[in-house]
Structures are given as structure tokens and as C-alpha cells.
Write a structure and sequence with these properties.
With 453 residues, the chain is mainly alpha-helical. It contains 20 helices and four strands. Belongs to the nucleobase:cation symporter-2 (NCS2) (TC 2.A.40) family. Azg-like subfamily.
Amino acid sequence: MEQTSTVPSDRYAESSEEHWIGRYFGVHRRGSTLRTEVLAGVATFLASMYIIVVNPAILSDAGIPFSAALSATVLISFLSSLAMGLYARNPILVAPGMGMNALFTYTLVQGAGLSWEVALGCVFWSGVLFATLAMFNVRKAIIEAIPASLRYAITCGIGLFITFIGFKNAGFIVGSDATLVSLGSFDASLLIFFIGMMATAIMVVLRFNGALILGIALTTLLAAPMGRLWGEEVMVQWSGLAAWPDFSAVMQVDIWGALKVAYLPFIFVMLFTNFFDALSCFMALSESADLKDKDGNPRNLKRSMTVDAFASMIAAPLGTSAAQTFIESGAGVAQGGRTGLVAVTIALLFLPFLFLSPLLSLVPGIATAPALVLVGLFMLAPVAKIDWTRADEAFPAFLAIILMPLTYSITLGIAFGFLGFVMIKLGTGRWQEIRPAMWVSAALSVVMLVTTH
């Protein structure tokens, strides 16, 4: 008689671990495996690890030391992603967000003249308000209050603003007395940036995992001979491989100094941007990977929003701009990731970089610039969702998009977008379409314009 094999299958082998990992995260219940979840975490990490270098590069323009900003970036990414995995049990990365760091540096610090300590205080209070909204679950009322066209426009405008910063940091675009802006001098630096940008774009088109970080590495290697072969500024200088984390920015937040009436619009803009970025990210990922509950809503949405909110709160004491959900989490979802084990994997992959600030400080500005340009491309996707045939919706959205890069201010773009929406609805007799929250937003916009300009 033929004997039945007693060798366990792969499926059975994995189910033996169900009692301590699989059961907690619901790995098999979600139709996944431990191997798939870990590989999905690696995919998301590769797609988003550029933030480890890019965020400190932007925050250093605000006066925060690069090494301190890097330590804060890694630490908040580790803690918040770990919380997303263990508490919300969703396969989503939380890290300092692009757009929020630009708002922090170029609008609050360089534009409005706040110290970076006070600007961190604004980050903290926006996180407090975010946490309050998350706990009381008022997302539906807020979603209905702000028109979708403006929400899409703000994401697009921030994307264009970040792209403009990338071109500026590379010297590709410079100031001009005759034409306001112009192409920079075509030298070795500009050539290296252009090659790096095109190489990064090609890798994105070919869907390379980690295309942005590979682009940063390639551009850094190309920039290394500068100053040695071409007689220009030395951009890449070796300062070591590893060092203890720099926590000099920890607890430097000026919480009480940020509580001024003049700063309320900045706090509101941070809250608005972070809240809707988080919500739109959760909704997009839930649709693409069927991460929904029995009612068809994004799975564990309240817990996920709570994690995002508290990540924003603790980002400020750690010394970085607000943390938020990353749409790059879609890379892991596309690999089959379905549970919080993905986020836990991402968190653990961030942690070693806490000790690599000397190595990562090699990266010059022209090497992070291609990543900024490509991030702008990704953030421009919602422009197709705006109904451009309705001028009463399209014009305020257009104002928000175009004024962010042209005024070099995210808050000004948002302010004029809100004011444009309210004034057009009033002027066309459609005042009933203005929700109470939009009246408040328009009033805060006026306050911001009067107090800061």
C-alpha cells in the first residue's frame, strides 16, 4: 500500500507559525504568506528610502543640522511605521512627508521668517489637532466641506513646488533680472544633474525597484570627480562610514512660541495638507488592494489615521517636519502585501540608517535634485481628476496649483485657492455650496495674508 507523505507542505509549514505572527497580523486570513509580506516590506522600503537623504537635505535649508535631521527622519519612520504595523495592522509606511518638509522649510522658515524651533511648534500643534479629529472620527464632515477639486489641486501644486525646488537646488533654474528665471550656466554641475535626472526618469519608466535612491546614488558617483577633474567646487567629501546618532535637534521644539494668532494659518495649512494626504492615501491603497472592511470603507481607517496623527505630534519633538502616510506603500501592496507585517518590516529596515549619517552626508544637493523633480511628477497625477469644464471649480484649483511655485509659498497657493472658491461661489449666487469649514478656511486665509504680507 502506498503511504501518504508526512512531509509538510510550504503552506502547512507557514501555518505552524500562525500562532505567534500569522494569527496576530491575519496573514493567511488575508490570503498572503509571511514571505510575501516581508518581500512587500522590502519593496516599499526601496521605493521610499530616498526620504532618508532628501528630508535632511531640505530641512538643513531651514537650519536644522543634516545629521540631526537624518537621525530624526530615521527614528520617526521607524516608530510610526512600527505603530502602523502593530496597532493599525495595515501595510503602510509612515515617514516625514514630501510637501510637508517643503512647507516647513521654504514657507514657514525662509518665507515667513520663523525659527525652525517655532516652526516645529507649528508642526506639533497641527499634530494635536489631527489627533483630535482622528479620535472623534469627524473625517466625513471635513471631507464634504472642502471641494475635491481643491484637494486635488493642493497635491498638484505642492508637486510643482517641489519640482521647482529641485531645479533650483541643482542650479538648473536661476534668477534673472530680465526674465525673473532662466536656465543656469551649462557647466559640469548642470550636466551631471541632467544626466542624473534622465537616468532616474528612465529607471522609473522601466519600473526599477528603488529607482529614486538608485538615481541619487548614480548622481553622487558622477559628482564625486567634480573639483578634482574639472576645477569646480568639491561636492562629495568622505567623512566616514558610521557614527552615533545626532540627537541635537531632539526636544528643541518651541511649543509655546508657536501659539500666536499670526501662526494659526500655518498650523491650519499643515493640518489640512497632512489630513487629506493621509485620507487620500488610505483610500487609494484600499481600492487598489481591496483593503476594506465589511462596510466597504478603508480597513482600520480610524486606527490608521490615529497613528498618522500621533506620528505628526512626535515628529516635532524629535526634530523633523510632520510624518505622514506614503503613497509609495503601493509598491509593497503591488507585491502582494496585505497586513501590518509589511509596515513592521519597513520599520526594521529603516533602523540601521540611524548610524550612517556620515556616509549619507556624502550626497550633494545636485544628487537629491533629480528625486525632487520626479516626486513632483508623481504628485501631479490628481490633476486629471479635476473637472476643467466647470470654471467655478477649475479656476480656484488653477490658482492653487500655479501660485505655489510662482509665489514660492504653499500657504499662499492654498489661501488664494480657498478665497477664489468662496468669492466665485458668492459672485455667481451659489453661496449655498459653501460649507461652514470653507468659510473658516477663507477667513484664516485672509488672516494669514494680512499678518504675513
